[in-house]
Amino acid sequence: MTAPVRTRSSEDLIRAEEPVLAHNYHPLPVVVSRAEGVWVEDVEGRRYLDLLAGYSALNFGHRHPALIAAAHEQLDRLTLTSRAFHNDRLAEFAERLAGLVGLDMVLPMNTGAEAVESGIKVARKWAYDVKGVPADRATIVVAAENFHGRTTTIVGFSTDETARAGFGPFAPGFRIVPYNDLAALEAAVDETTAAVLIEPIQGEAGVIIPDEGYLTGVRELTRRTGCLFVADEIQSGLGRTGRTLAVDHESVVPDVLLLGKALGGGIVPVSAVVANRDVLGVLGPGEHGSTFGGNPLAAAVGTAVVDLLETGEFQRRAAELGAVLRDGLTGLVGKGVVGFRSRGLWAGVDVDPALGTGREVSARLMGEGVLVKDTHGSTIRLAPPLTITEDELLNALATLGRVLERSV
Ligand SMILES: Cc1ncc(COP(=O)(O)O)c(C=O)c1O
Questions:
Q1: How many A from CA of 311 to the centre of ligand 1?
Q2: Ligand 1 pocket check: which of 24, 25, 261, 271 to mutate, most ligand atoms within 8 Å of Cβ?
Q3: Quick one: 236 and 289 in the same domain?
Q4: In angstroms, rounded to a whole number, what is the distance separating the alpha carbons of residues 269 and 264?
Q5: 202 assigned to some structural domain
Q6: Ligand 1: which of 111, 147, 153, 270 to mutate, most ligand atoms within 8 Å of CB?
Q7: Which residue range is the domain that position 348 belongs to?
Q8: Does position 1 have pLDDT exceeding 60, yes or no?
Q9: Model pLDDT, residue 243
């Protein structure tokens, strides 16, 4: 990487944000100005290993050459048509993405929250048109501690008061049950149920992995009771856990898959609802849409992302390096780590609260050149780009070990 081009200091830029940016985030005090692979560089030229990877939007690292090349090539030809017209990139993107996950059809959107909103609309429409639920009576069962995004409908069925409080009134039609509890799910499902909407692994909640058999149980229950299984794989999907999808660990195929984040290769927001024709086919012209959804730039980058995933290399790396991550974290248990959960290159690490909050530990790691993000309380989340090398990962684990040791 060459010298930074900016002249304002990190401190100055952070101060300049305060009066002009909404305060809906509390970022660590690092101002990134360039990045490559797993490394980011701040305006003073300090380098950091990025162990957050844009909440899994950067599964392939920063500026992966194949993705950047696809974006450049498309930028030089066509960027946006809206869906008022066809574009010459969309058919291939939909074909390839549907093929990757073994379903028929794609509804392209942009952000994760839009994919979730779209999935909710599709499920409700399916409930009225196909299942025969009386008008406006459809319900959707969701899990406590969920994180599906920030729209008013979505935060309305969140159990996180910070996300919810002050934003009502909320849309009705959602039932909340404990995660990882099939009996509670069974009790909540009835003839009005359009869908069960869950994360196969709850990322924002702290990388909560359900018991083996839970996803199979959700699949069996939804099939038996005649409602849809909608899996939000926006954070868990596309290689992160060592398989293309987190549901692949139980060989489960949901009715509706919600994808986002890494689908845009860290370049543009690209999300999608993917489902079979008997479900996604319920939408007709004018019933749903998005000006930017399915734009040719997004389709080109998304297709290049599918190319990468089809090699299987990233899933393999996540699985192999996931074992290294697990071993490293196991070695830290009792040395500042009180517990952790991991699958592939994704971990929620509970730090001994006596050593500080997750935020404080994240700040100390930043001081040592490693970027992570806390979730709740004393939990930090690790989600490095899947391109990280074993040495880089071992170094990051050693840094975590040192930071925790020094905190004692
Ligand atoms: C599981 C899950 N669903 C949905 C979203 C929302 O995605 P976006 O921030 O792109 O709207 C997130 C974001 O963290 C997520 O983790």
A1: 25
A2: 261
A3: yes
A4: 5
A5: yes
A6: 147
A7: 10-63+314-407
A8: no
A9: 98
> What ligand 1 atom has the least distance to the C-alpha of 260?
10
* Residue whose C-alpha is closest to residue 242's, from 338, 172, 313, 180: 313
Confidence of residue 3 (pLDDT cuts 50, 70, 90): low
Asked, for residue 1, whether it belongs to a domain, the answer is no
Are residue 224 and residue 353 in the same domain, yes or no? Answer: no
Query: Quick one: 237 and 325 in the same domain?
Result: no
pLDDT tens per residue, range 186-225: 999 999 999 999 999 999 999 999 999 999 999 999 999 9
Rounded CA gap, 92 and 70, in Å? Answer: 14
| Tens digit of each residue's pLDDT (9 = 90 or more) over 338-384 | 999 999 999 999 999 999 999 999 999 999 999 999 988 899 999 99
156 shares its domain with 261: yes
pLDDT per residue as tens digits for the range 240-295: 999 999 999 999 999 999 999 999 999 999 999 999 999 999 999 999 999 999 99
Pocket residues for ligand 1 (CB within 6 Å)? 55, 111-113, 116, 147-149, 199, 203-204, 232, 234-235, 260
Global pTM exceeds 0.90: yes
What's the CATH number where 28 sits? 3.90.1150.10
- At 367, give phi and psi (nearest 5°): -60, -25
Mutational pocket test of ligand 1: of 24, 235, 263, the residue with most ligand atoms within 8 Å of the beta carbon: 235
Q: Residue 200 Cα, ligand 1 centroid: separation in angstroms? A: 13
Distance 148 CA to ligand 1 centre (A): 5
Out of 287, 310, 333, pick the residue that ends a domain: 310
State in Å: Cα 111 to ligand 1 middle: 8
Q: Answer yes or no: are the C-beta atoms of 146 and 164 closer than 8 Å.
A: no
Secondary structure string (H, E, C) spanning 180-248: CCHHHHHHHCCCCEEEEEECCCECCCCCECCCCCHHHHHHHHHHHHCCEEEEECCCCCCCCCCCCCHHH
Pair (216, 326) in one structural domain? no
Task: Tell whether 280 and 329 lie within a shared domain.
Answer: no
